[in-house]
Amino acid sequence: MESWLFTATAVAIPAILAITLHEAAHGWAAWKLGDDTAKVLGRVTFNPLRHIDPFGTVILPALMYFTTGFVFGWAKPVPVNFNRLNNPRMDMVKVAIAGPAINFVLALVSAWLWGFLPADGLGGGGPTVGTWAKAALEVSVFVNVILMVFNLIPLPPLDGGRVAVGLLPDALAVPLARMERVGLLLLIGVLFLLPMLAREFGYDLNLLGWILGPPVDAVIEVIRVLTGND
């Protein structure tokens, strides 16, 4: 029971923070750029409880971590009225990039703190506290980098899709923007359901690992260099 609780909290707490602060960053950026919709609704806060979706933030990420080793989830979306932004098209890009940016900062800070902790033992708390802290910080780096890279896939409604819509010429941006309604379903189908179906026929179709693996490894290496961790 203690071992399970150790693992569950070391995974759940960093994952919940990563997912909810990602949404909070969108709301904060929108507020600073002219749209106070999220602010009025109390969503411009770094209190994770204001952003938690019980299934998408807690249950699904936990199930995926313990069954696949990959973490995927979502918080309650922060409402943004892009028409109220000072410069709707370019400010949309800034609001979108705020989410992945906060994930990178969280990963960087987690790696930096990890370097200060001993392998076990943390003051008077004993080895368990130190081991838990190291484990939680390692998960924080891993989860935040995965969320950052995944959300930068250039397909709406992911952040990378909205960045692409804001930067591409209209001839490309308009048809891409129209994919917003089906984009998430397409991603789930291609990255999760298709590989599951392929495994039933004996094929290893790890599209998620092939797509995310190299950039995730590259970002983690950059963080390792920046924080001086071996």
TrEMBL record:
Record-linked CDD domains: S2P-M50_like_1
UniProt-listed InterPro entries: Metallopeptidase_M50B, Peptidase_M50, Rip2-like
Keyword flag Kinase: no
Keywords carried by this UniProt record: Cell membrane, Hydrolase, Membrane, Metal-binding, Metalloprotease, Protease, Transmembrane, Transmembrane helix, Zinc
Cofactors, names only: Zn(2+)
Any one of the GO BP annotations: proteolysis
Domain Peptidase M50 intervals: 16-117, 135-193
One of the record's GO molecular function terms: peptidase activity
Membrane spanning stretches: 55-75, 95-115, 135-153, 182-198
Membrane topology summary: Multi-pass membrane protein
Protein location: Cell membrane
Family of this protein: Belongs to the peptidase M50B family.
Protein name, per record: Site-2 protease family protein
Organism name: Azospirillum oleiclasticum
